[in-house]
Amino acid sequence: MSEHLHQVTVSVNGVTRRGEIPARRLLADFLRMDLGLTGTHLGCEHGVCGACTVLLDGVPVRSCLMFAVSADGHAVTTVEGCCDPGGELGPVQQAFQECHGLQCGFCTPGFITTIAAYLEENPKPTEEEAREAIGGNLCRCTGYQNIVAAVLRAAEIKREREAPHE
Amino acid sequence: MSDKLVGRPLVRKEDPRLLRGDGRYLDDLGRGALAAAFVRSPVAHARIADIEVEDALDVEGLVAVYTYEDLPGRVAEPLPLLIPHPDLTHPRTPYCLANGEVNHVGEAVVMVVATDRYVAEDAAEKIRVTYEDLPPVVTIDQARAAERLVHEDAPGNVAARSVQTNGKGDAHEAIAAAPHRLALDLQIERSASMPMEGKGVLAQWDPDDRTLRVHSSTQTSTSVRLAVAAKLELPPDRVEVITPDVGGGFGVKIVHPWPEEILVPWAAMTLGRDVKWVEDRREHFISSAHERGQQQHVEVGFDDSGRLHGLSVEIWHDNGAYVPYGIIVPIVTSTQLLGPYKVGAYRVEFTSLYTNTVIVTPYRGAGRPQGVFAMERTMDAIAEYLGLDRLAVREANLIQPEEMPYDQGLTFQDGRPLIYDSGDYPTMLRMIRELVGWDGFEAERAAAAAEGRRIGIGVAAYVEGTGMGPYEGAHVKVETTGEVVVSTGLTTQGQGHYTSLAQIAADVLGVGVGDVTVITGDTRRFKYAVGTFASRAIVTSGNAVAVAAGKVAEKAKRIAAAALGGGIFPEELELVGGTVRRREDPETSIDLRTVAVLSNPLRYAFDEAAKAATQFAAAVGTGDEPGLEATGFYMPERSTFAAGAHGVVVETDPETADIKILRYCVVHDCGVVVNPRIVEGQVHGGVAQGVGGALYERIVYDDAGQLVNASYMDFLIPFATEVPHIQTAHMVTASGVNPLGLKGAGEAGVIPTSAAVASAVQDAEGLAVRRMPISPSELYELRKLWKSRKEQVSA
Q1: Has residue A68 been placed in a domain?
Q2: Least CB-CB distance to B717: which of A102, A104, A138?
Q3: Which chain B residues are closer than 8 Å to A43 by Cβ?
Q4: Fewer C-beta within 10 Å: chain A N or C terminus?
Q5: Which residues of B17-44 are buried (b: 16+ CB within 10 A; e: fewer)?
Q6: How far is B726 from chain A (nearest CA, A)?
Q7: What value of ipTM does the predicted structure carry?
Q8: Are B752 and B773 found together in one domain?
């Protein structure tokens, strides 16, 4: 018996995407398999590591713990959507390169989305707050020190870029 | 300031791609490929009585189901023993799919191939395997007792027994004759590499030109290629193995061929379809490799100053159910245990034991953390016994810089003599003393005590053999666009090789780092390599890149000299700023890319640039080869030895026994540093794994051999909130065995962490820490034990 398919319409990185998918298709798999957006990575598939974090209407969610059909009618932002409108690296991405906040890069997309959302909430975090902000994402390579530095640097870059030009 | 790129903390070239989500990891490839899933043993030790697959056959989208009975020829044979050793007398390796018996939870029994992973798992769920349970051997104690056997034909559960001595007399006699003696029983528990990306394989068979293309998330694509070719009985030239972006390795991905690396390509050939398997997290826990589990018994003899006269160590090493990677881990423990010290007469004996658990193969540090734990716990025990300062005891035993190169009198894991090439250990300990605030600590302790807080300080030092052979190679080519393409055979999994190797090549060729593209782990581009493990990549491939780039530079000078004319000799030229120019007269120059054009004498001029290189203008000598390119290799005579010392201050909660790291300091010497930013990152990451191994991470099996914490919920990898800020200080003692003076840095951070933390916890608590990791509940129990012991003594 073939699986029943459901229509979904999701705004992904500002583009309306449609799909016909089984009810059990995870949001992460929909993004990766159906839309070819492979920047979102699966590290544990049980909601702990945070590598698959995407923003649902601007709020970080684990895309491995959510069915794609539940995202119907919502807006999703993935790491691919975290670049600046001109296509250059976004503030968080830029800060990660400057601070050496990534090594293998597998967990990185989940950090980028998490931090991008966090800085909307708290544009000028302290070091302690920065560490707390990334406290739900696992990284096996960096020891986090440079990621904490990247959060602080990203806040700076964001302020610089958002400052009104003379 | 030097205009050299080596030594500069450049940002990484590979980052923008990875940061935009444009990385290509294994599961990002092969869209539309069939998916494989595995039925794995749910029991630790059993005979397989029956496998019923009928129910699975009705699942829509199922393509194939395979059991051991379906496997042909060499696919049905046991997997290879990769590193044989004379002392490994009873080697046992697994089959690709279980052949009538399973020896650990997670062993693959049935392979299912379907249209996607959801469907493959649906079908796998419907397969019924009947097991006849056998009693499992779970712990080292059970393995030593040998009341039950893992393999009936491996008596005593012993895979290997090995003894080494250092040729400095009989250790037992030296200990007996020493003024003082101590004995310690120590234990380190199991942990695992646990990269964020598990393993994965994609195989594509081209029936037209009979070529197999395999992508694998591996630390060695060249050796996977040869293993796959051997198993599938294909000429190696018909097999390509490509390592895409890899989401961390830390040792577990050096093992090969994994059953899936044979089965997935075999299925792709058999079915004529692309097949992909991506390991999920639970599979990674129960079927990839673990490490660290050891028991140790140390006996030491020493004098009043704490100087060692003799050291005898017995090690019982848990190697899991099979030994496909040989006995490298206990060999490394046995030999690297000595660290920066002279120990007098040394004898080490290890017994490598089978258990019904996941195989044990190198995890970052590869046996060194256990060895350092033994040595450093011993140093602390001596200091306590003699009432001496712990650093003073260490200083009394150090190898001095003027004694380099220093022969430890042992055979290292590469079969070569264990000779330290260079190092300045007294300076290293002096630096860690200052960095961690050793001398002012008693005042700090008193101040904390006045607030009702309990703190302790610890230190641990290590020496790490890095950059071992047999070799690595590289191909360097200057394109006619001026782009330099560097290909090396070893793989990369986050170490920044695309940048650090580019720095080395750019310096030799006088170009910018932006002009250099580095390709790793692709057997289509470079077929000869060993792999990325044992802190060897920058040492071996780095020197190979320098050799190959040097050959290219020489060739560029030859061609440029001919093209410039006027009787200029190649020796008068230098490569600077993308040009080849006369050293004495920089105006006399030619662009490197033009030299690349000239290097390929053409019959046909298809564009303006090519016109310059037609056979009538060419400057390539008749004895030369076309193309501005060369291949070079570096074959080290033996390993080069890096070193370091860590200092840590912990606070233990008097009530809850919570252990918090207040300060973590690292002194690190990896010889000449190519990219300080990258090295610093490697140290941070290693320390974080070390902190995990000291305080949080352990693999827990129950009595039946079930791995009970096979998830990130229960296997506690530290988050940012658990890893301390790390202060680092670097020293540079250039390697004496390779031209660039490099030593490896990949594993360093993790090696002494458990030993240093144990030292600090013991210092805070005034009780003996003999086993790591240590959790708050274990510390709590330890306190009770010591309290009752003290009461017994006073009563």
Answers
A1: yes
A2: A138
A3: 196-197, 247, 281, 712
A4: C
A5: ebbbbebebbbbbbeebbbbbbbbbebb
A6: 8
A7: 0.97
A8: yes
Kindly report, residue by residue over B314-357, the tens digit of the pLDDT.
999 999 999 999 999 999 999 999 999 999 999 999 999 999 99
Task: Please check whether residue B79 lies inside any domain of the structure.
Answer: yes
Instruction: State which residues of chain B have pLDDT below 50.
Output: 1
- Final residue in a domain of this structure, among A52, A81, A110: A81
Query: What pLDDT was estimated at residue B565?
Result: 87
Last residue of a domain, one of A29, A49, A81: A81
Q: Is A134 exposed, middle or buried (0-12, 13-18, 19+ CB in 10 A)?
A: buried
Backbone angles phi and psi of A74, in degrees to 5: -105, 170
Q: Could you tell me the pTM of the whole model?
A: 0.96
> Are residues A9 and A67 both part of a single domain?
yes
Does residue A152 sit at the B interface (CB-CB below 8 Å)? no
Nearest to residue A69, comparing CAs of A24, A29, A35, A28?
Answer: A24
Yes or no: say if B734 and B672 are a contact pair by the CB < 8 Å rule: yes
CB B516 within 8 A of CB B506: yes
- Dist CA B120 CA B38 (whole Å): 8
Question: CB distance from A37 to chain B under 8 Å?
Answer: yes
d(CA B368, CA B349): 16
User: In whole angstroms, what is the distance from residue B122 CA to residue A2 CA?
Assistant: 13
| Dist CA B21 CA B522 (whole Å) | 21
Residues spanned by the domain of A117: 91-162
Closest Cα to residue B761, out of B652, B646, B655, B688? Answer: B652
Which ranges of B475-586 does DSSP label H, i.e. alpha helix? 497-509, 537-564
